[in-house]
């Protein structure tokens, strides 16, 4: 009986169902300005939780009129230490696998909601010296090439607050190049 269970488990682990599940991984990635370490752990067949720590850049453009009617244009830039948690839903891993496409290390499309806390910036220009929270619903895709090279691209909508009294809304874009362990 033990041999049968071992054989049955081995056959299931080699079946296509095993390749369609989300797998855990560690990665280091470079973003537009900054460096992030991430750990992704599976929460089910299609769900995972990505936790990140590192540095991110915040860039903002503002244009407004002064009291005397003069227009002022200003760019704000800051580099922030960031902690984030991102639950993900991979919606097409099994389709990619069945079509013979790359589904290695969660290579597929995903929907997520990134929740991040950023500390006061260690570099700033026209930025208040405060941290805050950002919630970003995301759509994106991920590809892993040559077993270690990571590429992610995504877009969504930032909902940011520094004091929980006001919320700013803006577009969010993410380009991530990294190395998987």
> Order of strands side by side in the largest beta sheet?
1-2-3-4-5-7-8-9
Structural class: mainly beta
Radius of gyration: 21 Å
Largest sheet: 8 strands, antiparallel, barrel
Element order, helices and strands?
HHEEEEHEEEEE
* Whole-number mean pLDDT: 84
N/C terminus separation: 37 Å
Rough shape?
elongated
Structure write-up:
By secondary structure, this protein is mainly beta. It has helices at residues 2-14, 16-19, 93-98, and strands at residues 25-31, 34-42, 47-65, 71-90, 109-118, 123-125, 132-145, 149-161, 168-180. Strands 1-2-3-4-5-7-8-9 form an eight-stranded antiparallel β-barrel. Strand 2 (34-42) and strand 3 (47-65) form a beta hairpin. Mean pLDDT is 84; it is low at 1-19.
Concise overview:
It is built from 3 helices and 9 strands; from the N terminus they run H-H-E-E-E-E-H-E-E-E-E-E.
């Amino acid at each position: 009986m033990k041999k049968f269970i071992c054989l049955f488990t081995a056959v299931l682990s080699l079946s296509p169902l095993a390749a369609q599940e989300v797998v855990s991984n560690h990665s280091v990635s470079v973003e537009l300005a900054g460096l992030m370490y991430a750990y992704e752990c599976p929460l089910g067949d299609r769900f995972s939780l990505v936790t990140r720590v590192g540095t991110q850049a915040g860039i903002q453009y503002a244009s407004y009129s002064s009291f005397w009617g003069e227009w002022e244009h200003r760019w704000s830039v800051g580099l922030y230490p960031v902690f984030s948690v991102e639950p993900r839903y991979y919606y097409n891993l099994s389709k990619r696998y069945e079509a013979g496409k790359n589904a290695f290390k969660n290579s597929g499309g995903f929907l997520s909601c990134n929740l991040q806390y950023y500390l006061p910036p260690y570099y700033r220009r026209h930025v208040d010296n405060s941290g805050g929270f950002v919630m970003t619903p995301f759509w994106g895709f991920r590809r892993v090439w040559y077993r270690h090279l990571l590429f992610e691209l995504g877009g969504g909508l930032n909902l940011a607050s520094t004091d929980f009294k006001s919320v700013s809304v803006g577009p969010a874009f993410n380009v991530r190049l990294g190395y998987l362990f």
